[in-house]
Structures are given as structure tokens and as C-alpha cells.
Amino acid sequence: MVSLSGIGPSTLARCVELAADLDRRSVPLSLLLAPRRAVEGEALDWVRLRLRAGDALVQHGSDLRADPFSPRRRAEFAALPAHEAGLRLIAARAAFARLGLATDLFAPPGWAVSAGALVALARHRFALCADAAGVRDLRTGGVLPGRVRRVGGDHWRYLLGVRRALRRGALVRVAVDAADLDRLGPRQAVLDAVDLALAHAAEPTTYRLLLAVTARSTHRAAAP
């Protein structure tokens, strides 16, 4: 599964190029957007086009500001109590609604989420939260393990990690920031990881499609 963040006017051309490369491989995208920094103009039109074509919209925090409750200025939802997290979720949904967008999928900035934020997400009827270690089905409590793999650093070490996950039959989550796509290395790492996964008969997916997988896993675990 490939997720893309940092979508905006200055990165749109690179986002379009990556999406075209993935389309040729029949691999959909999960689009991570911060509602209170949401895209406008041509970038918003592109997001809507991608969603109609089958990509998934994932709420990426609220506005990506550091958490004021954390003395170390950690990522926005990394240490928030439930009440504050809930207020941000309400404001974020309203910002999405003004753009004609809506989703019940959530990925916190930095892939870090507090226990309080998880409570708030469930209260506000979010169905899924993707953190650094796996994907949580907030409706059932099921968790699908699979750490997020951020593009960057040593190319071959990155691919080696992907290969190991594939050999275990694990979920492979490739995360890319659009700001990194102006460099050949990160973009090629995404495509190489995708090609490697497809060569191992991995099934392309999105966070939306993973909801069905986590629900089935929870049902099997609960069966006598």
C-alpha cells in the first residue's frame, strides 16, 4: 500500500507523475490530507479526480501543528488528551466539509497517536487509524500489524526491509511525502518497492480496502 502526503500546488506535478506511474501498475493511492491545510484549486481538483478513480482519502491530523500539550513539541496527535483531540477532529471535519470532502480514515502526523486520541477517534466515529506499527479498526478493535516504511535513506537497505516483510507475508506500507519527489532517489524507491511487492504477488490496496481485512481478522480471532 502506498500513501502520499504533502499534496499541494507546489508539489502537484510530482504527485501527478507518481500517480501515473502507479496507475500503470494498477496500484491505487491513499491520499493523506490535513483538513485545515487542505489543498485548493488544481490540486483539490486532482484529489477529487483521484478519489473518483478509487484512491482513498485519509485525514492526516488536523493542521499538522506540534502538540501544545507536549513539552517536547511532539507530533500533533502524539500526546493529546481525548477532549482536545476531539475538538481538533470536529474542526477538521468542518474544514473538510467546506471542501466537499469527508472520510472516516485517520493517519496521525508522524504516525504517532496517543491513547486519548484513539478514544476521541472512536467517539467521533472514525473507522480506522493508521499508526507507525499497524492499522487499527476502531469499530472492532482489530489491529493489522505492519509498520510504515518511509521513503528515504539508503535505497538498498530500504528495499531489503520491504523484501523481508514480503517473505513474512506482512503488510507492506510505503509512505512518501510529495516534497521528496523532486529527488530521483525517493521516487525510484517507491516504484522499486511497488515492483518488488508485485513480483511477490502482493495485492495492491488502500486504507479503505484494509477495513474489510481487519474486520475479517477480528471475526476469525473471536470465533470459538
Sheet with most strands: strand arrangement: 3-2-1-9-8
Cα separation of the termini: 32 Å
CATH class: Alpha Beta
- How confident overall, as mean pLDDT? 89
Strand element count? 9
Spell out the CATH superfamily: Glycoside hydrolase/deacetylase
Q: In which range does the helix fraction lie?
A: 40-55%
**Backbone structural class:** alpha/beta
CA radius of gyration is 17 Å
| Largest sheet report | 5 strands, parallel
Show unreliable segments.
Answer: 66-72
Q: Count the helices. How many? A: 7
Instruction: Could you tell me the CATH topology label.
Output: TIM Barrel
Q: SSE order, as H and E?
A: EHEHEHEHEEEEHEHH
Portion in beta strands = 5-15%
Shape, please?
A: globular
Number of domains: 1
Tell me what you see in this structure.
- This is DUF2334 domain-containing protein.
- It comes from Saccharothrix coeruleofusca.
- Pfam families: DUF2334.
- The protein is α/β, with parallel strands linked by helices and 224 residues long.
- It is built from 7 helices and 9 strands, in the order E-H-E-H-E-H-E-H-E-E-E-E-H-E-H-H.
- The strands form 2 sheets. Strands 3-2-1-9-8 form a 5-stranded parallel sheet, sandwiched between helices. The protein has a 4-stranded mixed sheet with strand order 4-5-6-7, covered by helices on one side.
- Helix 3 packs across helix 4 and helix 5 packs parallel to helix 6.
- The longest helix is centred in the middle third of the chain and has 17 residues, at 82-98.
Task: Supply database-style keywords.
224 residues; single chain; four-stranded mixed sheet; globular; TIM Barrel; 42% helix; alpha/beta; 9 strands; five-stranded parallel sheet
